[in-house]
Structures are given as C-alpha cells and as structure tokens.
C-alpha cells in the first residue's frame, strides 16, 4: 500500500494497488487529517473513476463532511472550482496509462497536499484504520462549467482569425476545450481524438513523450494551422507545436508567456524551474521582470508562488501555473497567451520562438545508480574547482562559463536525472558524454 502514497499525490494500479476499500479509507483519513466540514470532489473519465469516486465520497460522508460534487472535469477546471473551498480532491492519474488511477489532494483554496505537508499523515491514518464516529455528511451537486468558461475567455485580447489543432489524446481537454472555443468568434478549432476514452486507443495521453505528437505535427502542417496543442489525460500539461510542425519545449513557452505578462505587469516576478534553459531567465530580465528559480514539483512551485505573490510560473514538464487559476496549472490560459501573442505581433509562432533558440539542451536523461547522494557528491568534487557557481536547491546544479548542468535524484527510484545545456552543440555533446561516463561508471 505504501507505494501509492507518492511525493505529490496518491496513484497506483487499479484494482491491485488502489481499490474501493482503500479509497473509502482515504476519504475518512482526509477529513480526519484536515478536520473539514466540506470537500469539493471532481473526477476524470477513467474507467475506474466512478467506482473510486463513490467509495471516496462515502468515506468523506461517513467521517462527517459534506461532498460538493463538481462531476466530470479536467484538473485545471478542478483547481478553478476549488477556489474558496475548505478542501478538495480530484480523482485522476494524470498522464498515466489506463490501468492507473489516483487522487490529487488539496487544502483550502486548491493548496496541494504533498509528502512534505500531509500525504504521509494521511497514509498513517489509512493504515491505522481507527476513525472516530461522526454524523454522516451529504452530497450536493455543483455546476461550475459556465463560470470556468467565462473565466478562461477573459484572458483573450483582440484575437485575429486563427486555425488551431488540439490533440487531447482522448483525455479531459477534449471535454473542456471545445466548449470554450465555441464562444470565440473567428477561431477554427480542429480536434484530434476528442472523444473521452481513457483506454487511450490512439496514443498515450502524455505529450512529454514526443512520439505521441506525430499525428498532431502532421495535422498542423496539413491543415495549414497557426499552431497545435497537445494535452495530457487530465488536461493540466500542454505542449505547443508551431505552424511548421516543430515542437516548442515548455521552457521556451514559459519565456513567450512571460513576455506577454510583463507587458501588462511590468517588474513583476516570473518563476521557472531549475531545469529550464537560461534563455528563460534572460528573457524575463530583458523584459523588465524579476526571474525567480524554483525546485521541480507542483507543490513546491505553488507554495512559492503564494508566498511571493507570483503571477506565472513554468516547468519544463509542460505544467504552466497562473495566479488567476488559484496558482495552479491551466492549459487554456497558456493557449490564450499564445493566441494573444500571434494576434498582436502578426508573426508566425516559429518566428516568435526563433530568437529563443540560443543554447543547446540535452533533455532529461535518467541513469541508474547504486547510491544517489554518493554519486552527486562525487560529481561535485570532480567539477567544483572549475565551476563558477554551485547550487543545491534541487539536487546538484553547477554553472560554468559556457555550460551548466543539474543532477536531480528521483523520489522513488535509484535514478539520477541529468539536464545539461551549453553554448554550442559540440560542447553539449562533449559534456553530456563526460558526465554520463562518470555517473554510469
């Protein structure tokens, strides 16, 4: 059972790891831990979601809390609906394959519960299975789709005619995106794999696996679209495709959106995770903003955004966070900023991204090691005399005159994750191989 209680959420194979009995206990443990009187609950369209939803909400009610059922929703819609709530739970396994399901847990106002601030406590309560008797709560229905659509439309500014392709991978964006785009005049949305089907018959709903983007890339070129969007199963990650079919990495999307936000909010702080290209920091500062680096992980980013009143943050993983969505991810707000940028500039997306391609990046490379901490100490000792700066914000980061790297340990496996960037492709290849030889020796 312990393996389903992860760093940022609860997630496992259904029904061998996560089943109705556990879901019921999690519902009771959640209410006991937070001592709340009501919980907002939504779910994605996975085949096991109705069963887990029923068991979870029964546990919540039996522990004395009311359930506000917002029904079928994407994760961004769930976060929107959680604003003002005492607590909330989303039934989802994000981008994982069809065999998985899970829960995203939040305190008041969509503040995430992670391993550091409650998931382990909830795990212990589930294991003890010793809950106080309580007066049974009730379930009420709440429809927040219309207000969610209205909020999203508010981010659009003087949109010119555009043709956009959405590949939702049979996930939740196929439910929410078309409903929003119906309200936008002059914009033609073409959908791929819109039908909700969490058996994922066409491809895995994980845009970070670039093999899943091939159909979208072809369709964008074929339809002469302005750009394409790929989202994951629960609709909180997104990756953009330019009009040539080129994939835009999420750190460069972060830089593009930062430019737009800083036009309206000069000198504000924009956050990016430690793996992002240094062009992100440079772009933020060149446009008058303050660049703030964060460790990887949505719970850390959301906490830091709240503490520092940060309007926007971007992760290399395709998570893009907005204060206006309760400091949470929103694929559509991200899309709105790209639409605004194309409409105001009169340029093609590839032309807007081109100036950001100044450095050469490896992407994230995983290596199995015997001892993660020992290996990071070894790597630091090898390079410490030649480095300009050493950081331990998230694993080990070392900066040099014309390259840098971050080496970050996995939370659950004996893996080290390497991200490396250099000023030239030749240097990137050389340093990548040099480091991998050390790590894998």
Molecular structure report:
Helix 8 packs across helix 11. This protein has 441 residues and is an alpha/beta fold. It folds into four domains: 2-144, Alpha-D-Glucose-1,6-Bisphosphate, Chain A, domain 3, CATH 3.40.120.10; 162-245, Alpha-D-Glucose-1,6-Bisphosphate, Chain A, domain 3 (3-Layer(aba) Sandwich); 250-348, Alpha-D-Glucose-1,6-Bisphosphate, Chain A, domain 3 (3-Layer(aba) Sandwich), CATH 3.40.120; 360-440, TATA-Binding Protein, CATH 3.30.310.50. It contains 14 helices and 22 strands. The chain is globular.
CATH topology of the largest domain: Alpha-D-Glucose-1,6-Bisphosphate, Chain A, domain 3
Please give the count of helices.
14
Note the gap between the termini.
Answer: 34 Å
Average pLDDT metric: 96
Structure summary, number of beta strands: 22
CATH architectural arrangement of the largest domain: 3-Layer(aba) Sandwich
Overall structural domain count: 4
Largest β-sheet summary? 6 strands, mixed
Looking at CATH, the homologous superfamily of the largest domain is Alpha-D-Glucose-1,6-Bisphosphate, subunit A, domain 3
Shape: globular
Strand content range: 15-25%
**What Rg is obtained from the alpha carbons, in whole angstroms?**
22 Å
Return residue spans where pLDDT drops below 50 for at least 5 consecutive residues.
Answer: none
CATH class category label of the largest domain:
Alpha Beta
Kindly state the percentage of residues in helix.
25-40%
Structural class: alpha/beta
Spatial sequence of strands, sheet with the most strands: 1-5-4-2-3-6
